[in-house]
Amino acid sequence: RKEGELRETLERLRDIPIVGDVRGAGFFQAIELVKDQETKEGFSDEESEDLLRGFLSGELYRRGLICRADDRGDPVVQLAPPLISDTEQFEEIAAVLRPVLTEAWDRISK
């Protein structure tokens, strides 16, 4: 019942330039990270390593979001909130993701 609301909350992050796509099913969702939203250009291996392991994984965890930043294939942030999550938790997830993804974009766009 809440899948659409979770997805809609994550879709609102598309205004951040690093967010290339939001995809998934149910409460298993992923945010694809890109260098260029229009072309969907990805990151080099070194950039991906620095972005995901050097920054995102630790920073998201420090700010209270347990998720998986993975680069086997496209670099993505994978989310799987508890099935009892509701609007409040979805907004908390977005409130952590938005500033961290914005900062990640600022780091790689310089």
3D architecture notes:
The protein has 110 residues and is an alpha+beta fold. It has 3 helices and 4 strands, in the order αββαββα. A 4-stranded antiparallel beta sheet has the order 1-2-4-3. α1 runs parallel beside α3 and α2 packs across α3.
> What is the H/E order?
HEEHEEH
The average pLDDT score comes to: 94
How much helicity do the residues have? Answer: 40-55%
Parts with pLDDT < 50 across at least 5 consecutive residues = none
Number of strands: 4
- Strand-pairing-aware structural class: alpha+beta
Q: What's the helix and strand layout?
A:
Layout: H1 3-11, E1 19-25, E2 28-33, H2 45-62, E3 68-70, E4 76-79, H3 87-108
Antiparallel strand pairs: 1-2, 2-4, 3-4
Helix pairs in contact: 1-3, 2-3
Please outline what is shown here.
The protein is an alpha+beta fold and 110 residues long. The protein has 3 helices and 4 strands, in the order αββαββα. β1 and β2 form a beta hairpin.
Name its key features.
3 helices, 110 residues, single chain, four-stranded antiparallel beta sheet, alpha+beta
